[in-house]
């Protein structure tokens, strides 16, 4: 039986995984339909259309992995690195505010990066063996 501390960690990991998956999945519509904002973001970085499509594909895969408890650690690794790229893209190319969103995309990237970092910390002992 799990201790109270372990139960709390498991719940935190589960909630953060669900929230991160929702964030990843809600952006897919815009990436895969070629929404103007998505196209402009990736064009600004010189990665349109291939970067938009590949990023959407990786986001879908990561979202699925985060929702499967035995694969959550792998999903969190992918989410961590994808969000590091998103944060640096905002800081270096896009800016904090994109299309007058008040920094929403940047904030979601920071939240998801922090969530994946916490998930990695919690799930460290249950990571797949090398």
UniProtKB/TrEMBL annotation:
Keywords: Membrane, Transmembrane, Transmembrane helix. It holds the Pfam family DoxX_2. One of its GO terms (cellular component) is membrane. The keyword Membrane applies. It is a multi-pass membrane protein. InterPro entries: DoxX. The keyword Membrane applies. The chain crosses the membrane at residues 12-30, 50-68, 80-98, 104-122. This is DoxX-like family protein. It comes from the Bacteria. It is found in: Membrane. It comes from Leptospira fletcheri.
